[in-house]
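REQUEST ID: PR-0412
SUBMITTED BY: lab tech R.K.
PRIORITY: routine
TASK: structure prediction, single protein chain
INPUT:
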Amino acid sequence: MKRLCILLFSVVCSSAWADAAAPVTTRWTLLDQFEKAYTLDDSARVVLVARSMSTARLVNGALEEKQEGFLDARHVVYVADIEKMPSLAKMVAVPAMRSAKYRIMLDQTGRVASRYDGDRETVQWLELEDGKVIREQRFSDAAALQSALEALPQ
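STATUS: complete
OUTPUT:
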């Protein structure tokens, strides 16, 4: 009986240790403004995260003059965290987002944006390699964000 308890204890401890040592997955799936699913994969080079209306306007300011497909050609994924947006505002804002010439992943519950330690005052730029964040920048100026996006290879 004592051996069984020790064996059971060691299995439980090793299982808990393995779970703690396992890397947090960077894969996620969100719906865009057209309700089409997108799953983050290894082809993505940059994830932009906007957590407020002001940062969403900043991204829009950086992209409003760009042609359709600009972000896709550079393997950039744009995530708008709309969790804190009131329901009534979502009913108006989400259909309005359909006029954008770029895809916007809508984080309705904050489950994706919360994985990345950002703030509501800046646009978070997460540079990825094989699906993992290797570098982070923050932008509070549309012109600087636009320059950084233009500098990305196609």
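NOTES: The chain has one domain: 25-151.
REVIEWED BY: pending
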